[in-house]
Every structure is written in structure tokens, then in C-alpha cells.
Amino acid sequence: MSSTRQQKVAKLIQKEMSDIFLRDKRSVLGNAFISIVEVKMSPDLSLAKIYLSMMLASDKNKVLQILTDHKKEFRKLLGDKVGKQLRIVPEIAFFIDEVEERAQRLDDLINNLHIPPAES
What is the pLDDT, as a whole number, of residue 1? Predict the structure, then answer.
């Protein structure tokens, strides 16, 4: 379980990174609509694990690689936004959140089940 401080920093980073994705980095991300599902902070607040949902992205791994390649730029922009609130700007790591895809697969499985009608 994470501490209150970890949760507050995670929310701050989620808000600011969402803003960066929306405003500052459209050129890098193309037409991929990326939303931040969750941010998990390490206990010492030195690492932010950012879980992403990617809509309109045909190749999610390619988008993830682009984000990883531009990680330093994202961290710099994040530092510009949260530098006054945090002593140390955390390292960032991006991950694809697969909860949505798993839920879609389960929905598809349930919808495709053939259940014979009950006999009376």
C-alpha cells in the first residue's frame, strides 16, 4: 500500500503528464490519443511508473518506444511544471495498461458463448 505522500505525488504527475501529452508533445505522438490510467510512485519518490491507455494507436508498442526514446524530454517538461513542488523530479518509466484490453477480451468471450436454453 502506498503512503499518502506517494499518492499525492502520483496524482500530481498524472495531471501534469496528461497536460504535457495533450499540449506540448502532439508532434511526437502523432494522432495517438494517450491517456494516463495510473501512476505508481516508488517509496522514495524517485521513480514514477506511468501506465498508459492508447486509443487510435495502430501499433501500441511503437508508440511506447517513441515515448521511451523521448523520456528525457518528457522528464524535463515535467520538471518545469513540478519543480517548485518536488525536491527531486522522479525518473519516469512508461508501461501499456492492459486492463482495458483484458476487459474487452472477456466481453468478447462472454458474448460469443453458446449457452443452450434451459429445458423446462
Answer: 65
Closest CA to 51 of 14, 16, 19: 14
Cβ(35)–Cβ(6) below 8 Å: no
Closest CA to 86 of 75, 95, 97, 94: 75
Give the H or E element holding residue 55: strand 47-55
Q: Which residues contact 32 (CB under 8 A, 6 or more apart)?
A: 54, 55, 56, 57, 63
CATH 3.40.50.2300 for domain 4-111, yes or no, is no
Q: Does residue 74 contact residue 93 with C-beta atoms inside 8 Å?
A: no
pTM of the model: 0.78
